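Now read these lines:
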Amino acid sequence: MIDRSLNYGRHIIADFAAKIGHYETVLDIGAGKGDDLAIYKSKCDNARLLALEGYEPNVAKLAARGIEVFSHDLERDRFPFEDESLDLVSANQILEHVKEIFWIFHEIARTLKIGGHFVLAVPNLASLHNRALLLLGRQPTSIQNHSAHVRGYTKPDLMRFLKIWGGFELVDFQGSNFYPFPPCIAKPLARAFPQTAWSIFLLLKKTKEYEGEFIKWPIEKSLETNFYLGEK
């Protein structure tokens, strides 16, 4: 039987946190009920936990766990933090739900310290099961018109997108879960073949000053879509 909890790769979140080592401030974007933040706390007990969350029931649950939570529209609101003030930003299974990727990456790059880390995890459009579905003329499960997912991601396309700025260095890359197999098979397959796993996880490090490249890109390339790029 498929274990869908592996899609969230909490074992990878723990591994990335251990690799990062010390961090004083960690922000989870779309923090849900705070499960990832609890992992970050377990690896660095003195860390200040911050959350951006748009679903009000989860806002209440995060607050009840003692997490500093902000009710936030990721696609319109400015992050309530100063430039280069965060050590770690995490977004696990969130960015497939949003259109305004240029604005969100702008805010992540703006608020993350140089030398800080970004944990990025999304469903993999190039997973083995999605490739098989396409071969059969079927829609991939990671992006369907009747679902909440509006973007599809692969590792090569993410790396191409990140080159818009060029200030993120890839530190580690892993995959989690492997449809249609049970955990005893899915776990080793995802470790061996991360680029065809259900979820892909990137550990990125900010290496230089950010100067607004993400929100300049749609203008410079004349992208004919009304992307939100901040207040004019």
The domain at 4-217 is CATH 3.40.50.150 (Rossmann fold). The beta strands are 25-29, 48-53, 68-71, 86-92, 112-123, 168-176, 199-206. Residues 22 and 202 are 18 Å apart (CA to CA). The mean pLDDT is 96.
